[in-house]
Amino acid sequence: MLPTLLPIGALLAGIALLLLGSGLLNTVVALRGSLEGFSDTTLGLIGSTYFFGFFLGTFVAPRLIRRMGHVRAFAFFGAAVAACMLLHALVVQPAFWMLLRVITGVALVGFYAVIESWLNEQTAAERRGQVFAVYMAVNLLALAGAQQLLRLDGPETFTLFAVAAIFVCLSLLPVTMTRLPQPQLGHTPRLDLRMVWRAAPAAFVGALSSGVAMGAFWSLGPIYGERVGLDAAGVATLMTSAILGGALLQWPIGRFSDSGDRRRALGLVAAVAAASGAVMVALGSFASVALAGFFVFGAAAFAVYPIVVAHLIDHLHQQDILAGNTGVLFLHGVGAALGPMLAGVLLGWVGSVGLPLHFALAFAPLAVFAMLQARRGADEIVDEAAQFAPMLRTSPTVLEMVAPESGIVTAQQADAVQTDVEPPLTPPPSSAPTTGTAGSPPAG
User: Fold this and answer.
1) What distance in Å separates the CA atoms of residue 340 and residue 331, rounded to the nearest whole number?
2) DSSP H or E segment with residue 364
3) How far apart are CA 87 and CA 106, in angstroms?
4) Along the chain (444 residues), what's the average pLDDT of each consecutive run of 10 residues?
5) CB–CB of 376/361 below 8 Å?
6) I want to staple 212 with a disulfide (CB 3.0 to 4.6 A). Which of 262, 362, 431, 435 is the partner?
């Protein structure tokens, strides 16, 4: 495995440093906004604009990368993000912060797309599954570590914004120094949401629910911690507990989902996430309950998106897998853009319990819907069963890292007949290590 990772070590180091900075900024923005007296609704809107930028970036970033090339695009996105981070501390005004969050979201999708396209091309087909797992582990560990940087200073100072910008600048060094050849460009399938609904209604609803909940978690989780009486170190521990819960339990949950009807697994996981939210509504004013609740919530909520992806793949022919997963990514992005705004309104209405209440309201309908779908009949696999792969939502490019060869080739052949299709960032991989999982939830 080490010979496989060494050539892409610069890429993994770059994404780790980037996420240390961006993960820190996401938390600091929420805490600083609260200290400045921004309303809960305003804080929710600031979170929504970030995920709107993330959503917008899936369309804008490929054009920029195609225009500039991977290395220059990576440097371009880095300069944009670092400047936005520092401007947060210099101009403390809600509307201006919303603009900065949109730009940051677009740029972060560009970062992900550059790294993932390189990983896809530089990794041998038989090793892509292992590299994908390492890449996701790096993502989660970096996001968890970023929360601990809150211990360096208070959000009211310039220090944390500067530290976040420094990490983003450092992330440029290993990537811009790389001698890896730049990936070639290919084609991506057309978005078809009707196909997703026809193939797997539970996946359609699950992608939306996951986006609504996780967008609010990343944007307003620190606010909830602050409202239940945690200091900066306590907020860091709270957020880290949810991320580590997701990192530690995705594999066991994934094995469970692989062993039976994924709709039941999806319904059970959504029910656990909703129940953890309900418990925090009832008892979350206690810091220990909040910490335990966030750990359980993270363990369940982080598994929803990968189960959704695997369930959808179970019900698609190989030639439709990339198009289907693009639809799931789109639905998750829409949900993530709406989630913080809705949660912010709830926080304003009912106080600190508004966020866990939002979690419960986001996942309870999914739990009921998935269980009802499971009762309608046996879950029929179209071609062959997918394998669960722990993942976060990053960029559409990651969908190709573990997609089946025949699915990509056929999708491109189908695209040749269609027009107005956006070219992606990577060539199709020659083969895949699994039976077909693809994907990628916000990340922070």
Assistant:
1) 15
2) helix 354-375
3) 16
4) 72 92 96 96 96 89 85 92 97 97 94 83 71 84 95 94 97 84 63 88 95 96 93 94 91 85 94 96 84 95 90 84 82 94 95 95 97 85 68 67 47 37 39 37 42
5) no
6) 362
Q: Which tokens in the block code for residue 61?
A: 């970033």
Q: In the numeric block, which tokens belong to residue 386?
A: 């997918």
Q: Report which of 107, 71, 28 is spatially closest to residue 395, judged by C-alpha positions.
A: 107
Element (H, E) at 224: helix 201-227
What is this structure's pTM?
Answer: 0.85
3 state SS for 133-185: HHHHHHHHHHHHHHHHHHHHCCCCCCHHHHHHHHHHHHHHHHHHCCCCCCCCC
Torsion of CA 231, 237, 239, 240, to 10 degrees: 160
8 Å CB contact between 195 and 326: no
User: Shortest CA distance to 150 belongs to which of 36, 82, 238, 219?
Assistant: 238
Of the candidates 108, 98, 92, the one whose C-alpha atom is nearest the C-alpha of residue 14 is: 108
How far is the C-alpha of 421 from the C-alpha of 250, rounded, in Å? 34
Q: 97: which 2 tokens?
A: 């912060």
